């Protein structure tokens, strides 16, 4: 209850002043045959090209129906949607990830539960079974139709490693530190480029901390905090500090973002990155040819006996708004069309998407995405993804705490205190 009251206050404080300008956000059309679709697909991207063709196909097959796009940049979409919703002018269907503020949408009637629709429309069997629990909240409500997921391995540029005298990709923490020493001896800024100033660094910090943290305890800490008083969390953070102080991460990691991290890898400046499958799709062929995927190397005596990776099905889902429920027949036709196996496979094959739907997962034009999806569990263990457990209002303060963690001089106790403060803020 305390969390819900806090979130309500946060949303009101941030979004209420925007109501005076919400007319400009009006997606526009009360026509029952016009579906307003809010997304962040970027014109010129492979995903948008597939979507554009799929939208045209839907309109041809449904004479009189029209799909009107409302496009917002990735981080702006949630704020734009919430502001429009407060004015009753929100889009009918929104495609967005399940994380941070969207975790509270169903609680505040910003979107409607869709479990009943999934059953009535006979679409449950289209969804991978492991995706449904991730999209089901603590009240048992399916908050959105699962659409896309991800695999999040570690990418190693074997050409750079071999040039530095590193034999094989590091699988233990000791091998990782040795590789960092070797690449720095050749003048590199570090071994691992990481967005210490954004979400990518937050995920890696939490993943490294889990080296000494059993999964159930990790879930509890991500939900409730208490890092500074948990001996195993502190041991995991001490391990992070050891890696940082050994020069494993790029110099100035606390100021790097995910875009810079990706660029470092794409241009052959970084030997190692923790890279989500959506970014792996953009690795240039000349780099992809020398990349080996694996997990984050683990220390001796940790709770995982294999390098760790992350995976999940929360990258994007199809959420139905209260406005959309007024056009539910049209919404049904649209979601059914997207959920068709032939339609979904276009996103997999032509755009390298990792979908939460059943069907072949081959992406021949995106070999690293295919390799990430098919990474064998004999090679990696999967750590706990924080997103489904961290309270929505905590996400941004937690990222700020992460930036401090990558700053030289912060010890494990200080980092843990910063993480706990993020929850209290």
TrEMBL record:
Keyword Signal (UniProt): yes
Domain of life: Bacteria
Database matches in InterPro entries: Bact_solute-bd_prot1, SBP
Alphabetical list of PROSITE patterns matching this protein: PROKAR_LIPOPROTEIN
Keywords associated with the record: Signal
Signal peptide: 1-20
A Pfam family this chain is assigned to: SBP_bac_1
Keyword Signal carried by entry: yes
Protein name: ABC transporter substrate-binding protein
Protein's organism: Streptomyces millisiae
């Amino acid at each position: 209850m305390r969390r819900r009251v806090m979130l309500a206050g946060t949303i009101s404080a941030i979004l209420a002043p925007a109501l005076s300008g919400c007319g400009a956000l009006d997606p526009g059309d009360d026509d029952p045959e016009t579906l307003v679709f809010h997304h962040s697909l970027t014109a010129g991207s492979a995903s948008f090209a597939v979507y554009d063709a799929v939208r045209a196909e839907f309109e041809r097959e449904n004479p009189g129906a029209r799909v009107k796009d409302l496009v917002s940049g990735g981080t702006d979409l949630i704020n734009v949607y919430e502001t429009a919703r407060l004015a009753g002018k929100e889009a009918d269907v929104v495609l967005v990830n399940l994380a941070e503020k969207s975790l509270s949408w169903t609680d505040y009637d910003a979107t409607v539960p869709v479990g009943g629709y999934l059953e009535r429309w006979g679409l449950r069997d289209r969804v991978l079974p492991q995706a449904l629990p991730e999209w089901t909240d603590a009240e048992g409500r399916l908050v959105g139709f699962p659409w896309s997921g991800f695999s999040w391995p570690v990418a190693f540029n074997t050409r750079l490693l071999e040039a530095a005298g590193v034999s094989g990709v590091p699988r233990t923490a000791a091998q990782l530190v040795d590789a960092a020493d070797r690449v720095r001896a050749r003048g590199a800024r570090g071994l691992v480029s990481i967005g210490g100033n954004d979400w990518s660094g937050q995920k890696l910090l939490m993943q490294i901390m889990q080296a000494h943290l059993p999964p159930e305890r990790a879930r509890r800490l991500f939900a409730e905090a208490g890092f500074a008083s948990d001996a195993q969390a502190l041991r995991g953070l001490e391990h992070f500090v050891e890696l940082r102080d050994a020069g494993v991460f790029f110099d100035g990691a606390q100021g790097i973002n995910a875009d810079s991290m990706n660029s470092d890898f794409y241009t052959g400046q970084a030997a190692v990155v923790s890279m989500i499958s959506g970014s792996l799709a953009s690795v240039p062929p000349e780099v992809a040819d020398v990349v080996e995927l694996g997990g984050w190397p683990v220390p001796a005596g940790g709770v995982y006996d294999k390098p760790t990776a992350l995976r999940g099905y929360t990258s994007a889902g199809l959420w139905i708004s209260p406005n959309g429920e007024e056009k539910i027949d049209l919404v049904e036709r649209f979601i059914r069309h997207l959920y068709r196996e032939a339609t979904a496979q276009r996103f997999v094959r032509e755009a390298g998407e990792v979908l939460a739907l059943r069907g072949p997962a081959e992406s021949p034009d995106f070999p690293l995405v295919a390799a990430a999806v098919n990474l064998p569990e004999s090679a990696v263990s999967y750590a706990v993804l924080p997103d489904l457990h961290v309270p929505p209002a905590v996400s941004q303060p937690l990222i700020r705490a992460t930036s401090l963690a990558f700053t030289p001089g912060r010890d494990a106790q200080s980092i843990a205190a910063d993480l706990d403060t993020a929850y209290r803020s």
